[in-house]
Amino acid sequence: MNDHQHDRDRPRSDAAPGPPRPEQPSSETAAAEGDGASAEAELAELRSRVTAAEDLRLRALADLDNYRKRCAAQVERAATDARAAVAAEWLPVMDNLDLALEHSDADPDVIIEGVQSVRDQALRVLARLGFPRRDDVGATFDPARHDAIAVHSDPGVAAGTVIQVLRPGYGNGDGQQLRPAQVVVAKAE
């Protein structure tokens, strides 16, 4: 092969351009376009997942609000039922007080006996409700169960002992107390 023939086969840079050749996508361009399509698909997928997560969040908030409303209704219903149960316990006491008033012109001893009976009935109701009347005379003073109204010397009693109850306390010693007793406590000499 001679030099002339060799030059003929070689593309010339100064040759007139022919019809434009379609550009062949380079591997980088194809990868970029593929990455772009892939990124668009991934973005669409992420948007879909965000929308689904937002929907789940809104549903959870609605469920939580409905649960809160149901709980509030149940608490209100339980409180209403508890009040009704307590009121029902007191109805016989009220009936007996009405009977006592109907017989107010009766013998005073009969009236006193009737009032005593109603009082005993009321004490039983309190005890059934979990608040029995306490007899604290002779007990050691306990600030959780007693309000000390006064302190007196009493040589026959140990210091800190309840010597008189001015207003009885109701409830048990396990922290379930309707009210503390007002007491007089013995002091040390």
Overview of the molecule:
By secondary structure, the chain is of the alpha+beta class. The protein folds into 2 domains: 89 residues, Alpha-Beta Complex (Hemagglutinin Ectodomain, Chain B), CATH 3.90.20; 58 residues, Nucleotide Exchange Factor Grpe, Chain A, domain 2, CATH 2.30.22. 55% of the residues lie in helices and 14% in strands. The protein contains 3 helices and 5 strands, in the order αααβββββ. The strands form 2 sheets. It has a 3-stranded mixed beta sheet, with no helix packed on it. A hairpin with a 5-residue loop joins strand 3 and strand 4. The longest helix is centred in the middle third of the chain and has 76 residues. The termini are far apart.
The portion of residues forming beta strands comes to 5-15%
Q: Mean pLDDT across all residues, rounded?
A: 85
Spatial order of the strands forming the largest sheet: 1-5-2
Overall outline: elongated
- Look up the CATH topology of the largest domain: Hemagglutinin Ectodomain, Chain B
Total beta strand runs:
5
Structural class: alpha+beta
Unreliable runs, pLDDT <50, ≥5 residues?
Answer: none
Radius of gyration: 47 Å
* CATH architecture assignment name of the largest domain: Alpha-Beta Complex
Q: Helical percent range?
A: 55-70%
Q: How far do the termini sit from each other?
A: 140 Å
Count of all domains: 2
Major beta-sheet overview: 3 strands, mixed
H and E string: HHHEEEEE
